[in-house]
Design a protein that fits this description.
Low-confidence stretches: none
Structural class: alpha+beta
Radius of gyration: 20 Å
Largest sheet: 9 strands, antiparallel
Strand content: 25-35%
Shape: globular
Number of strands: 19
Mean pLDDT: 95
Helix content: 25-40%
Length: 367
């Protein structure tokens, strides 16, 4: 396993964020469980001549904060965090939760307020990333909490993570580059299109993507990866879309979500479970009811819902649509403290049309 974490760390440092000599690299993790991987990342950054700084969270602090913070405290951002977002060249975030549900019963309005306050840091990160001034990647370390959420044993979940990241191969970077080349052809094809239409169960929705850039994701921002995405024109979403997979955000779950869009805005939102939380998130700020992203998942090593968005949005044969913030590097202009990726299964008759031409059916591209 030590060899595995060393391989994992080397891929994240050398391939995902491409650490160079003299670069400040912040390594964040939410618990001590990820120490084997964090230490290897720290070592690899040092070997590259970078300056690694580790920020390790304490389980339960966020829960204590939301429960006890006043409005004044919710609106405060510490200057050290501000400096990190301004000065770091590389951000490596490792999820390793002990409990994925510790935020589930907290006041959703306070959670929304805090997210709104943190919005400008997310904007800064995305802006710097689009300008090529910041590299970042999000990855996970297998824990019992993640395994339980996925209905797996820890051993099975670890093997699932390894294969989803292609870490079982002798040269995972070569595989990710191959995936990137394949997806780049799809992105270039879509870059010449103006209208995207999604159809399926309770779904018929269109977006204007003229002038927007489609991007291929192959392990450089998320790990594992596997998607092609863009940010649609902000006022263009029209129609209805149904999300059959469970939709999880900050430990809270909404099930069987049905959204209606008009002039780009989500004007109606229904869910059989978690509707109040869903609506509170959508009412977070002025931009949270607009669509920040539409994407097509391509990772065939991920087939089942695990309750972890890092994996679930990459499911081969799925699409996802994010309510909230868009990506500046795609031409997106929507600003919000929210970015909630909502996932839809497309293997049950789902179709995608580009400028009225069928390009995708039942979870597979046909171009």
């Amino acid at each position: 396993m030590d060899n595995l974490w060393g391989k994992y760390a080397k891929v994240l440092v050398d391939y995902s964020v491409k650490v160079q000599k003299g670069e400040l690299t912040i390594i964040r993790t939410d618990s001590y469980l990820s120490q084997p991987l964090v230490k290897e990342i720290y070592k690899q950054v040092l070997l590259k001549g970078g300056f690694p700084v580790v920020r390790m969270g304490v389980e339960g602090l966020n829960e204590v904060y939301i429960k006890n913070a006043s409005d004044e405290q919710l609106e405060y951002i510490d200057p050290m965090t501000e400096i990190e977002y301004e000065k770091a060249k590389n951000l490596i975030s490792i999820g390793a939760p002990l409990n994925v549900k510790n935020m589930a019963k907290l006041d959703s309005k306070k959670l929304a307020k805090r997210s709104g306050v943190m919005k400008h840091l997310s904007e800064k990160m995305l802006k710097r990333s689009a300008e090529g001034d910041l590299n970042w990647v999000i990855a996970d370390f297998p824990t019992n909490a993640l395994a339980q959420e996925a209905n797996m044993s820890l051993e099975d979940y670890t093997q699932f993570l390894i294969k989803a990241c292609y870490l079982h191969l002798d040269n995972p970077v070569e595989k990710w580059k191959e995936i990137g080349e394949k997806q780049e052809k799809i992105a270039q094809y879509l870059n010449n299109k103006s209208k995207i239409r999604l159809t399926g169960e309770k779904t018929d929705v269109t977006f204007n993507v003229a002038g927007r850039i489609w991007k291929s994701c192959a392990g450089e921002y998320n790990f594992p990866d596997g998607e092609v995405y863009t940010s649609p024109v902000e006022d263009s979403g029209e129609g209805q879309i149904y999300f059959d997979f469970p939709q999880i955000y900050r430990g809270n779950e909404a099930q069987k979500v049905l959204l209606t869009l008009k002039n780009g805005k989500i004007v109606d939102a229904k869910a059989e479970k978690g509707e109040e939380f869903l609506i509170n998130m959508l009412d977070m700020d002025e931009g949270s009811r607009f669509v920040g992203e539409i994407a097509i998942g391509t990772n065939d090593m991920v087939q089942d819902v695990t309750g972890n968005i890092l994996f679930d949005e990459k499911i081969g044969g799925s699409i996802h649509m994010a309510a909230g913030a868009s990506y500046p590097d795609t031409g997106g202009k929507n600003v919000s403290g929210l970015h909630w990726d909502l996932i839809k299964n497309m293997k049950n008759g789902g179709k995608i049309f580009a400028d009225d031409v069928l390009i995708y059916e039942n979870g597979k591209f046909i171009i």
